[in-house]
Amino acid sequence: WSALLDRVIKNSADAGAQMDLALIAQLTGQANYAKVCQQQALAAHKLFRLAGTSMKPTLRLLAICAAAGIGDNTPVEFLVQNSDVELYTYYVVPGETVVGDIIDHDVAFVAVPDSDANRPTLASIAQLLEAWPRPVLNPPARIPRLERDRFCALVESVPGVAIPPTLRIDRARLLHPSERARRLRA
Fold first, then answer.
1. What pLDDT does residue 135 have?
2. Residue range 17-53, pLDDT digits in tens
3. Cβ-contact 42, 67 below 8 angstroms
4. Which stretch of DSSP H or E encloses residue 108?
5. What angle do CA 67, 57, 7 make, to 5 degrees?
6. How many degrees, rounded to 5, is the angle at CA 59 between CA 53 and CA 60?
7. Which residues of 121-134 are buried (b: 16+ CB within 10 A; e: fewer)?
8. CA 168, CA 53: separation in Å to the nearest integer?
9. How much of the chain exceeds pLDDT 70, in percent?
10. Cβ–Cβ contacts within 10 Å for residue 143, how many?
11. 58: exposed, middle or buried (C-beta count within 10 Å: 0-12, 13-18, 19+)?
């Protein structure tokens, strides 16, 4: 924390240090500070290279992410850890256009899950990918089918797969199940 903070104090344009500070702030429960750090980093850069990736990569992967908190994107960095994959992460901010060239890569992976909050980001990513020059894994149009409440219906007919149905319930109903039970008995 201290070393990153020193880097930012010495060079406020150090977007990598800002993103790392945002991550640490999120992990320590400082959500507001994390958001500020991330916004400052993304104001300077949208593309980041994961430090420590392979010096001789066999695959250059571009993860396309939402400008959001930890856990709001698929944690691709854990999937490629200790591999020969070179990982770049590009953050999409709805309403902002892509400035500059996207790094050359072999395949892109959309790491943004479906949620009410992410729908504007997914729409921006879908526009961005309309003329994409490389293969794309997990295109935005297919992501909603992978949500828990839809995925069970998608795979229920696959031989050998047994999956319980998952239902989407709003927070109010979840917090007050006795009210629902009382209405069902009436």
1. 95
2. 788 888 888 888 888 888 888 888 888 888 888 866 5
3. yes
4. strand 107-110
5. 45
6. 70
7. bbebbeebbeeeee
8. 38
9. 88
10. 19
11. exposed
| Residue 171: C-alpha distances to residues 38, 73, 168, 177 (Å) | 28, 22, 10, 10
Ranges of beta strands (E only) in 42-103 are 47-49, 59-66, 85-92
Extract long-range pairs of 168-172: CB within 8 Å, 24+ residues apart. none
* Alpha-carbon span 151 to 139, nearest angstrom: 16
* 97, pLDDT greater than 60: yes
Two tokens, residue 102: 């996207």
> pTM score, two decimals?
0.77
Handedness of CA 167, 168, 173, 175 (dihedral sign): positive
